[in-house]
Design goal:
Elements (H helix, E strand, L loop, with lengths): L3 H9 L5 H12 L8 E4 L1 H8 L12 E5 L27 H8 L3 E6 L35 H9 L4 E5 L6 H7 L2 E4 L20 E5 L2 H12 L14 E5 L9 H16 L3 E5 L7 H4 L4 H18 L5 H8 L6 H22 L4 E5 L8 H4 L6 H20 L3 E6 L9 E6 L4 H17 L1
Parallel strand pairs: 2-3, 2-4, 7-8, 7-9
Antiparallel strand pairs: 1-3, 4-6, 5-6, 5-10, 9-11, 10-11
């Protein structure tokens, strides 16, 4: 399946045209592979937009999708819920949507998500749950919260899946579906027009089919140019953090990760195993509930009073936990995070990036975590495992990318490259080289 970069070059060479590419994307979007992927399709509007010639633009009339928490002018923004289905229509596109449109992207629809983005699993009791692309026999979770956006990219229904990442919501579904997900430093992309989960941790970002597409999407969303040098892997010093990231890891993930490390070492990368004792401090720092619970409760409290019965009970349970945080506890959390970031940045200062499994498990079946109180324990166990590794980077205010590193025919596994804030260009440069090495293994 061609990525955006290759397809755009084919467009410029006259080997295809934007109308043909759009109809191909729409055909996939209407297929069983995209069941429950879209909460609202915009195919007719897309056809009208692609009629306007823009072959020289960055996105050249190619399809993108937007997670259901982004404002689209003239539509409500339900964020995967039913309680906001009839909310007032947005008066303007979210900044991220507007930037992708201005770059020549054609929006084909709003994509399904975990309600209010509060889950890494991707299950939605209101809209249904899109199935992972990796298994034709057992429907498996897509990962969340940007579930539909991931499937739209993995199936070929879109070149860019616009989403958000608060604790891994881009990187988790990217890893579980075998695509690329880049979480930039949060401050680089405006969140205006995106319904918030945590104003401290939310990051607007995207999933793509390749690292070079991830760079293109980030440049558009952040309105900046990425400086990704052409240095070989041998120019980089990489760390593997031994503690926490490998706890409860599935054998298949451990094996794929070790094979990936070998491929990077064979490519010349300097890889050093380290301990990061600061990770053991996170449980105490977040003991009062963390940012997502407190900040989501501040946004949802009045809506919960009016329409709480319409919420996914699993989501409501996590939001309501934020009601118990006291003002001094929130301030202590802000200060503790700031000090923790400084300690971790100092520990990683001599490395160009860190390597970790994106998540420690492969995608479990949808049936095992489907809505129902009798499956709540398993749901929350899986959710905690999926969020654990990627959420560390959000707490760090860092940047990270997930690359597929599994062998053909196996369930997808993600390799995460990450670092502290504003190391985006370095992480992307290494990811370009790593992607090449992994494809050769």
């Amino acid at each position: 399946m061609n990525d955006l970069h290759a397809t755009r070059l084919n467009l410029l060479a006259g080997g295809t045209d934007a109308r043909t590419e759009l109809e191909h994307a729409i055909g996939i979007a209407q297929s069983p592979a995209c069941s429950h992927v879209f909460t609202r399709t915009l195919f007719d509007e897309a056809r009208q937009q692609v009629a306007l010639p823009a072959p020289q633009s960055r996105l050249a009339g190619l399809a993108f999708t937007a997670k259901d928490l982004f404002d689209i002018e003239g539509q409500p923004t339900p964020a995967g819920s039913v309680v906001l289905s009839h909310a007032p229509a947005a008066k303007a596109d979210a900044v991220a949507v507007a930037r992708l449109r201005a770059a020549g992207g054609v929006l084909t629809g709003r994509t399904n998500m975990s309600e209010f983005a509060f889950s890494g699993v991707g299950v939605n009791p209101h809209r249904g749950t899109p199935a992972n692309v990796s298994d034709a026999t057992t429907p498996r979770i897509p990962g969340g919260s940007s579930s539909g956006a991931a499937i739209s990219v993995a199936t070929g229904a879109a070149f860019i899946g616009l989403g958000s990442d608060t604790g891994g919501s881009i990187r988790i579904p990217a890893a579980l579906n075998g695509i690329v997900g880049f979480k930039s430093t949060a401050r680089l992309v405006p969140a205006d027009g995106a319904l918030p989960l945590s104003t401290t941790l939310d990051t607007v970002c995207a999933m793509t089919r390749s690292v070079r597409d991830a760079i293109a999407a980030h440049e558009i969303l952040a309105a900046r140019r990425v400086t990704a040098g052409a240095a070989s892997l041998g120019a980089y010093r990489l760390a593997v953090v031994k503690n926490v990231f490998f706890d409860d890891i599935e054998p298949a993930v451990a094996s794929a990760f070790q094979d990936a490390l070998q491929a990077l070492r064979s490519g010349g990368a300097q890889v050093e195993e380290i301990e990061l004792p600061e990770l053991a401090q996170l449980q105490a720092i977040n003991a009062t509930g963390g940012f997502s619970a407190a900040e989501s409760y501040a946004w949802h409290r009045l809506l919960l009073e009016r329409s709480g019965a319409g919420y996914d009970p699993r989501v409501a349970q996590r939001i309501i936990r934020g009601a118990g945080m006291k003002a001094h506890e929130y301030i202590d959390l802000v200060n503790a995070r700031r000090a923790w970031i400084a300690r971790v940045e100092a520990a990683l200062a001599s490395f160009d990036a860190v390597l970790s499994p994106t998540v420690p498990i492969t995608a479990p079946s949808i049936a095992s975590v489907a809505p129902g109180a009798e499956r709540d324990d398993e749901f929350f166990r899986v959710n905690a495992l999926l969020l654990r590794n990627p959420s560390i980077v959000n707490m760090l205010d860092g940047c990270a990318i997930s690359l597929p590193c599994h062998a053909a025919g196996e369930l997808p596994v993600g390799l995460m490259l990450w670092h502290a804030a504003l190391h985006d260009d370095g992480v992307l440069a290494i990811a370009l080289q790593a992607e090449h090495a992994l494809r050769r293994q």
